[in-house]
Structures are given as structure tokens and as C-alpha cells.
Design brief:
By secondary structure, this protein is an alpha/beta fold. It has 4 helices and 7 strands, in the order βαβαβββαβαβ. It has one domain: 3-Layer(aba) Sandwich (Oxidized Rhodanese, domain 1).
Length: 114
Amino acid sequence: MQTLLPKELSSLLEKNPDTIDLIDVRGTGEYAEVHIPEAKNIPLHLLPLRLSELDKKKKIIFICRSGGRSGQATLFVESENIIAYNLVWWMNDFEKEFPKKVVHGEKKKLFGLF
């Protein structure tokens, strides 16, 4: 599995945002609470149904709260012969290291994957 560090993602967001397809695989409630504005929300359980939405001409990067779901997403798309990257240290750490690069919404009750 290929990985990407938060500093590398931050640099890509600053210098070459048009070269990446950033996919947040958390549930919609988690995404609404805090997310990177450039990230598209495709919850992990919907990824197989929305695979066609990935821009294979760009560097596909998966993120989640703690790395489990983004790792699963990366392995899944690799099994479909798509090159992808898993953000190491994940959303929690990205938010701590680059607080001005995330958007905070309302804290909502989270139910399961949504």
C-alpha cells in the first residue's frame, strides 16, 4: 500500500491541488463535523458503487479519522488496478498539524456509518 504524509498532502494542496483527487471515506456526519475543503466525501461502504467517480488521471488519496477505513479503501481500489495512496497519520493528525486547512461544521450525532 502506498502512503502519503500529512506534510506531503499539505504541499500538494498548496502547490498542485488540481493534480489530486482527495477522497474522505468517513461517514457523512463525520465529514460534516470537520473536513478538508478539497476532499470529496465518499463513505467507505459506498465506494464500490461510486468507483466511477474517482479521477484516475489524478493522484487518488484516501483519508479517514484514524486510518482503518482509508487503508481499506486504498487496498480495495488497488485490487481494481487503480493506483491510490493512504494518508498516514490520518485526519486527526492532519487537523492538529494544519488546523487552518480544515473546515469545522456542526457536531452531530453519529449513527453507524452515516
